[in-house]
Every structure is written in C-alpha cells, then in structure tokens.
Amino acid sequence: MMKKTAILFMLLAIMAAVCIIGADRECMAAKPSALHVKGTKIVNASGKTVVLKGASTHGIAWFPQYVNKQCFQSLKKMGANTVRLAFYSDSGAGYDKSLYTKIDEGVKAATELGMYVIIDWHILSDGNPKTNEGKAKEFFTYFAKKYAGQSNVLYEICNEPNGDATWQRDIRPYAQRMIRLIRKYDKKALIIVGTPTWSQDVDTASDAPIKNESNIAYALHFYAATHKEWIREKLKTAHKKGLPVIVSEYSICDASGNGGIDTKEGKAWMKLLKKYRIGHIAWSICNKNETASLIKASCQKTGKITKNDLSRTGKWIVKNW
Ligand code: IDC
C-alpha cells in the first residue's frame, strides 16, 4: 500500500515538473540561434539550414496596434518563426521618428517569443536609397548599437529601390556604406540588401555582388498575380551564381497589394522556394480592406488571432509556412 502511494506521488511530481517547464517555455522561449550565410543558404550555429517563415507588419505608422506579443504569438502558433517590422523611410509616406519605440516593442515581443525579427528600412516612394540616406544612417546607428550581438535581430537596409536607382551606381554603394555602419556596432547580424526594380533584380545583383563582407543576403520580392515565371527566372539565374536570397516580402495578389489572388502562381513560387530552401515573409499583418492583408477586414482583434480571423490570403499563406 505504502509503495503504491509513493509511486503515485512520484508520478504526480514528474507531471507537475513537466507542466512547469512547459509553461516557462511558452512565456520565455529559447533564444534563436544566430544566423549565418553559407553559400546560398542561411544556417544556424550548428550548420543546419534555417528557412525564415513569417509575416511583415504593414507600415507601423498606420497599423501599430498589431505590434504586440499576443499577435506575434498567434502567428508563431500558426507556423511563423519570423516577423518583419516595416518602417517607412520617406517623410509624408509614414516616416516618423517617434515610431522607433514601436520597433523596440516589436523586437522585445519577438525576442520573448524566440522569433527572428527583421528591422526593415522601408524605402518605396523615395525610390533611390540615397534619397533618405541621412535618416537611414541615424536609424541603423540607433538600432545596431542597441541590438548589437542579439542573435534574433536582422536588418533590411532598403526595402525596394525603384525609379532611377541602379545597382552599380546607387544601391550597391549605399549598401556598402550601410553595412560598414552597422558592422561598427554589430559584427555578425544578418543584413538583407534590396535589389533594383522593387527588389526583383536579384540576377543583376548576382552579376556583381557585394565583396569583402559576410552575412549578407539579397532581397527578392514578389506578388504572385503580377510577378510570374520571368521573375522566377531571375531567381534561378541568381541561385546558379550562388547568391543567397531571402523573400522578405511577398503575397499572392497583384503588386498593388490588391486585386485577385493567383494560387497557381503562388504554388509555383512556393515550389521553387522550397527547392532552394529560401525563406519567405508575407505582406502584411493588418485588416486593411485590401487583398494582401492577412486578417479579415471584418475582424477587429489585434492581439490573439486564430485561423478563423484570417483572410483568404492569410489562410493560404499560413498553410504554406
Ligand atoms: C502597400 C500597402 C498599401 C499602401 C501602399 C503605400 O499594401 O496599403 O497604401 O503600400 O504605402 C510593395 C511595398 C509595400 C506595398 C506593397 C503593395 O513594399 O509597401 O504596400 N508592395 O503594394 N512592393 C510591392 C508591393
């Protein structure tokens, strides 16, 4: 009798210990391993390939309410390991220095959840990364100093160069300057460099990549209803030349962020990304009434969200993480 009670007691104690450890994991997840570029792949400290999967905020000037731990945790439960914080760089297009604190909140939430977080300098209407380079310097000095050595923080230094910006004359020299600046403080963080034509021309970058710097990956962005086989060809060319690529923004609608969904093209993209083990971060975490939004326009929740709260696009994206 005594023996039975003792065994039962021991079993209960083991179960309680397992529960406590489990609960602790949930609120303070393991620190993600630092990422390194190795050939065309992104690997962790033990050399294992890491495929970044997740979603980007919309401009945090417009949808700051989704930058919170519960929301990111919901995405994590659906399969995400990464969030991207989009900070628009142009005055009149969302730039607001007081939003630095939102980035800090987002990094804190992602860090507590053990997720990777991309700090994105979201150039768009400003076209050439040189246009707001002074502000970019201030931005990356602040964040690289602050998060130096924090293994889950990544930097994306120019979302989508466009207009007259060329790789050799504008984007690559800008990237070299910004990488040097970040490296003053953070020797190791993975840095993502945007490519010409709204981050489509990875083939151009692969012809003349950045030399003498390590842990650099190049951005490819696609919106599947607009960007089809001819952009996948660019990726194939860049891959053959050994360029490490991350899809730091994509959706399955058209390039305006609206219009119809093209799942056939979406599938063709996912097949290629899977083959190359390339990471992909979807645009965007909000309920704006446009096709790219991951959350239904009718859903007012900004914290804990479930699959039922996702838009058609959101459901497709999450299924493909
Ligand atoms: C779009 C948003 C839209 C906003 C517009 C201008 O979805 O609500 O009005 O920006 O700020 C990109 C850009 C991304 C765009 C997105 C869709 O990186 O900022 O967001 N897109 O147009 N590149 C290709 C498509």
Describe the overall structure:
- With 321 residues, the chain is α/β, with parallel strands linked by helices.
- Helix content is 39%, strand content 17%.
- It contains 10 helices and 10 strands.
- It has helices at residues 2-27, 69-77, 100-112, 133-146, 167-185, 196-199, 202-207, 229-240, 263-276, 312-319, and strands at residues 36-38, 41-43, 53-57, 82-88, 116-122, 153-156, 191-193, 216-223, 245-251, 280-285.
- The strands form 2 sheets. Strands 3-4-5-6-7-8-9-10 form an 8-stranded parallel barrel, surrounded by 5 helices.
- Strand 3 (53-57), helix 2 and strand 4 form a beta-alpha-beta unit.
- Helix 2 (69-77) crosses helix 3 (100-112) and helix 4 (133-146) runs parallel beside helix 5.
- The longest helix has 26 residues, at 2-27.
- The protein starts with a helix and ends with a helix.
- The model is unreliable at 18-27 (pLDDT under 50).
- It binds ligand IDC.
- Ligand IDC is lined by residues 59, 124, 159-160, 198, 221, 223, 249, 255-257, 283, 288, 290, 292.
- Residues 59, 124, 159-160, 198, 221, 223, 249, 255-257, 283, 288, 290, 292 line the site of ligand IDC.
Radius of gyration: 21 Å
Extended strand count: 10
Give the number of helices: 10
The distinct ligands, each listed once, are:
ligand IDC
Task: Give the key terms.
321 residues, alpha/beta, 8-stranded parallel barrel, two-stranded antiparallel ribbon, 10 helices, 10 strands, binds ligand IDC
